[in-house]
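Q: I'm writing up a methods section and want to include an example of the input and output format. Could you take the sequence below and give the corresponding predicted structure tokens, formatted cleanly so I can copy it straight into the document?
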Amino acid sequence: AIPALHAADGSAPPAPRVKRATRPAYPIHGTVDRFAPELDDLIAPGVQMERLASGFNWSEGPTWLHREKALVFSDVPENVIYRWSDRDGLSVYLKPSGYTGQALEFAEQGSNGLTTDAAGRLVICQHGDRRISKHERGRGFTPLVTMVDGRRFNSPNDLVYDRRGNLYFTDPPYGLKGGNDSDLKELVANGVYLLRSNGRVQLLTSSMTFPNGIALSPDERTLYVNQSDPKSPIIKAFPVRDDGTLGEGRVFFDTTRFAEKGYKGLPDGLKVDVYGNLFATGPGGVLVISPDGKAMGLLNTGEATGNCCWGDDGSTLYITADMYLLRIRTRTEGYGFRRRSEEHTSELQSRVDISYAVF
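A: Here is the clean output for your methods example:
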């Protein structure tokens, strides 16, 4: 579960945080199903999931805002992004979030996957507007990518930045009414794409039927992509070349056996921790999978589960599961969390330096 991985600068990953189980301030939700003893290195025995909020139509795309010390997440059909923190509770953060027009009908019109860029700005997969945009308070939406080869995207779904500022994202048809058969569909492929930091966009692969969640390994040499196809509910792993393009993918993990047991859901979102373990939503909740493809456990939400992310100090896993927002304390840390935190600190310091220079 914890191989000797190192960051790009050669430094060792942080030691796991050993936390005592404390009495939760929120209701307990679901179970932690342990398939292998290695899970204890990542989720302490006795730790349980907490239910923070409920009543959503379909919660998705959680991401942590370092600047605000708060979580934001999408309710896709309702076209809204919510904000949640221990201090402030739940509030509407952005509405509309994914469709800013008035006329057309969509299966899922709102925002889906969310992340932040190096400057801490919210970056949004917008189903209804069929684009990826960044959003800043008081400045509205700035589209980052809207089409490829003169054709509009289907409904960008999930996304991840690499260290160089390149953005990998998936484009299934879930936002379109009728899906693959929608009259609005302009692209034949449901693809995985790369938006380079210079603004150029390219199709990386069209080999997946319904590409969904997406994440990079800690060394950024592997791109993981979930396929939310009931006929082939798999996670694929693609080698990443030096130029950012992908080699031939392989099936990294097949969730069929979990689906056949009657668990709700399909492979959807996923995140990777600093040791290379996958926390992948799929049948039953969040599957915890080692870098060599071993299922160590299941955070069993009892619901079809959309996505997850780390927040707080980097060791709290937040989970969006159908109508619920959940969290669980872990002994690991999300890959990318520390980097985003450091980038945000650097950005704040540069603003201070500029203000002193102007003064």
